[in-house]
Design brief:
alpha+beta; binds zinc ion; 5-stranded mixed beta sheet; single chain; 438 residues; 11-stranded mixed beta sheet
Length: 438
């Protein structure tokens, strides 16, 4: 690994598949052989090229790739970017970014908008976008180290493999196993939405606390055997964290092990009976908090609609569930007969689920695909048990998200209880070290 002198740059995909992009340059930008540019601009995809116009509607240049370098302290604003793409909180607003702006023509003739910026500036925006600034500082610092590790480990991966996996799928007869890799992007390192990490721009949106958390941890990452960790996180584990291969490919990642998210020595779940007992119980755990004041401090406004994430119940009539299943999976199961967990990870999350109907039965995995098939949106988690009563399918579950790595709500609660950044990170990622690499 070794240390690097300068912090790396990162490319972030801000917009995708647009026929037109409009915005404003605040300050001076320079292109190849033109500039300075400032004020409003418009880019339009025409046949096999992008045409850039200035405020007076004059053509500035046309090319498949238009790179605009920022001069000192210049920023650019994009009009009408989408937040929470495809989720229930989707909305549009103008956003401002610092760093360079690139417009690239995609294979399908649309424009992709890319921002190149320093990792540390990127992180200030991520921490501000993902976290409420009122969260405890030790939690914000833990998250800054975690997010930095995740990004830097991914940059290495992308350079090594140079391949793009859209979706990893194994469909063998009666089995549909899918997971969604982090190497989805071909034109940039990370996207600005929930798929990677939320990056909603700068300006008013950078909180003083996020800035402080990033500055105080500058260049710090978590490492395992001298390699930067592919550090994962999710909202709430439900009392026990999950292992990597319940959510992604069959591979053991030593620092992503299932551990009790509590001071109690809970044991990993091995049998259906243990899963049932765990899910219907309310174990003491760091993420088992109902204190609304604290939750409001941890979760950004967009997420506060969700309160019962530690233990939850969802109920459908047989007809409703048959309809959801057909829409989401694309398979007609006929009359739904049984839903049988075949394999669970240590947190109780199901990685392989059998669905039995009168027309077909199928095994589905892994955790995200299971959550997708069984809800109009997504089930909170795949750690659930199913009861069938009078034509009703009742799902009782635990936790929110894949549960692998750091539990965000648990970590924030630990911080309020006085645990340090180092203690929090070493609790969720066993055997790691914290290192400053630049
Ligand atoms: Zn992404
Ligand atoms: Zn937890």
């Amino acid at each position: 690994m070794g240390s690097v002198k300068h912090q790396p740059k990162i490319t972030v995909g801000l917009m995708d598949r647009r026929s037109e992009v409009s915005g404003r340059m605040n300050g001076h930008y320079y292109g190849d052989g033109f500039g300075p540019l400032s004020h409003r601009f418009l880019a339009r995809a025409t046949e096999k090229t992008i045409v850039l116009f200035d405020e007076a509607d004059r053509e500035i240049c046309r090319s498949q790739v238009i790179q605009l370098r920022s001069s000192k302290n210049s920023t650019f604003t994009l009009f009408g970017t989408t937040l929470g793409n495809g989720f229930h909180w989707e909305k549009r607003e103008d956003q401002t970014f610092q760093g360079d702006l690139t417009l690239r023509l995609h294979k399908d003739g649309t424009i992709t908008v890319i921002n190149k910026t320093s990792i540390e500036d990127y992180l200030k925006s991520v921490i501000s976008s993902e976290m409420n600034p009122a969260s405890p500082m030790e939690f914000l610092k833990s998250h800054a180290i975690l997010s930095r590790s995740w990004v830097l480990s991914g940059l290495g991966q992308r350079k090594r493999t140079e391949k793009t996996l859209n979706l990893t799928e194994k469909t063998k007869g009666r089995k549909v196993l899918r997971w969604y890799g982090r190497e989805d992007h071909d034109l940039f390192d990370v996207c600005a939405g929930d798929h990677c990490q939320r990056y909603y721009g700068i300006g008013k949106k950078i909180s003083r606390q996020a800035e402080e958390a990033v500055q105080k941890t500058q260049g710090m990452v978590i490492t395992f055997q001298n390699k930067i960790c592919d550090a994962r996180y999710s909202k709430a584990c439900g009392g026990f964290t999950e292992e990597y291969d319940t959510a992604w490919e069959d591979r053991r990642v030593p620092y992503l092990k299932g551990i009790p998210d509590a001071s109690s020595p809970y044991q990993p779940i091995k049998t259906e009976e243990e899963a049932r007992r765990w899910i219907v119980s309310e174990p003491n755990a760091y993420c088992n908090t109902k204190e609304l004041g604290l939750l409001k401090k941890i979760l950004p406004g967009l997420d506060r609609k969700t309160k019962n994430f530690f233990r939850w119940t969802v109920q459908y009539s047989r007809k409703e569930l048959e309809k959801i299943l057909q829409e989401k999976s694309g398979f007609d199961f006929g009359a739904l007969q049984e839903i049988v967990p075949l394999q669970r990870g240590p947190s109780g999350r199901i990685s392989h689920l059998k669905i039995v109907g009168s027309k077909r039965s199928l095994i589905v995995g892994k955790e995200l695909e299971i959550r997708r098939w069984l809800s109009p949106t997504h089930l909170y988690s795949s750690a659930f048990i199913v009861k069938v009563e009078a034509n009703q399918f009742i799902f009782q579950g635990a936790g929110w998200g894949h549960g692998v790595g750091l539990c965000q709500i648990g970590a924030a609660v630990m911080a309020t209880q006085g645990f340090s950044t180092e203690q929090i990170l070493k609790h969720y990622f066993r055997g790691i070290e914290i290192k400053k690499i630049y």
